[in-house]
Structure formats: C-alpha cells, structure tokens
Amino acid sequence: MLLAYQMAMENPGMILAEGIEAMEFSVLANKYGISGVPDTVINDDAGRVVGAVPEQNMLAELMRTLGK
Amino acid sequence: MEKMLPENVVAQIQDVFKQLQHPVQILFFGSQKNCDYCAETRQLLEEVAAISDLISVSVHDLEAEPDLAKHYKVEGKAPAIVIAAREGDQITDLGIRYLGIPSSYEFTTLIQGLLLVSGRDSGLSPQTRAYLKALTKPLSLQVYVTPT
Question: Which residues from A are below 8 Å from B112, CB to CB?
Fold first, then answer.
C-alpha cells in the first residue's frame, strides 16, 4: 500500500493510489476477484500485482501494463 | 464519546509523530447512506489529528458536497480518506486515498501515509521516479486489503 502512495506522490496529476478495504467495498473486491491481500489492480485490471512486492517488481509490472 | 485510541497507543503515535516535517491535511468523506463505519472512521481520524498540530482533518459529506467529492474522485465511496499536503490554506492533492476504516494493520498504513506526505518525498529510486514523472496517461493503483 505504501508503495502505491509513494508512486502517486511522484505524479499526482496522473496517478491515483487507493487503499481499499475489501470487505467494506465488497462489490469492487468481487469485481476483481480479490482473494488474497494485498492485491494491486492496475488500470481496471490491465495489470495485477498479488502480494507485497519490492519497488522494482511493481515498476516492472507497470512497464508491462503501460509500456516503457 | 469514549476514545477509540488507548493512551498507550496515543503515546506511541506521539513518539512516531516526532518525525513529522510539514503540515498534512486529512479530508474525511462520509455519507448518511449505508455507511456502517463512517462515524468510527471520522472519530479515529479526529483522535489522530489531535495528537499533532501538523495534522488537520476536515469533515465532508458525499451527498452534501458532491462537487468536492467529484474533485477528489471519491463519489459513492464512503468512508473515504484523502491524505493531502497543506501549506497554510493551500491543500495539494497527492493522489493518496484510503477507502474504509483504517483499523488494525491498516491503521499503521494510515500513520505511515501521514509521515510520507509530511516528508514530501516519495523515497523511490531515480529510475522509478523518472518513469512515473513521464507518464502522460492516468494510472490507477487500487490496493485491496483486509483488516486482519
């Protein structure tokens, strides 16, 4: 979660980082089939990172999803 | 109302808050409709903000302030928490949100988020910073968590 927040700070005009409590927002969580947490949904499921991962892994998934 | 944060937890937060550097504005968005945890979330945020002069909280309502809710992209999402930077009366949105009540482990995330915004520095690597700053299309990062 904190990593997503750190990332948003770098370009807040473009990046929105939302921590979402899955049980309270179960409609959203069910939409993306959230089972384990943390689970990061990138651009409406264009990309996905399950678990807490290091910065480099998250960056790699962003590059894969959005292009370099 | 009875306090949500026990005295020993307040003391711990006071200790951690010695690292606060710049003012932080928390915007709380509640709703009168189907919001089981709005009252608790608001109280929790107010108790945290009371611990430091550098942290302020403003209370808003999704239905009463639809334009503000739209501005912060929290329409239909209550309770919603925006953690923003503040300089005087100027609030700067840093794209940081938490939807739900930040209880148990996620309470730590809230505190860490406040410290992060207060520091005004992401702490990320130069490579990550360069990549993110160059983005020209919106990026949504939704991190799902559960209060376990």
Answer: 2
* Assembly ipTM: 0.97
pTM of the entire predicted model: 0.96
Which tokens belong to A3? 């990593």
What DSSP assignment string belongs to B81-125?
Answer: EEEEEEETTEEE--SEEEES---THHHHHHHHHHHHHHHT-----
Tens digits of residue pLDDT in B40-94: 999 999 999 999 999 999 999 999 999 999 999 999 999 999 999 999 999 999 9
Distance CA A33, CA B95 (A): 24
| Interchain contact A35–B (C-beta under 8 A) | no
Residues in chain A with CB shorter than 8 Å from the CB of B131 are 59, 62-63, 68
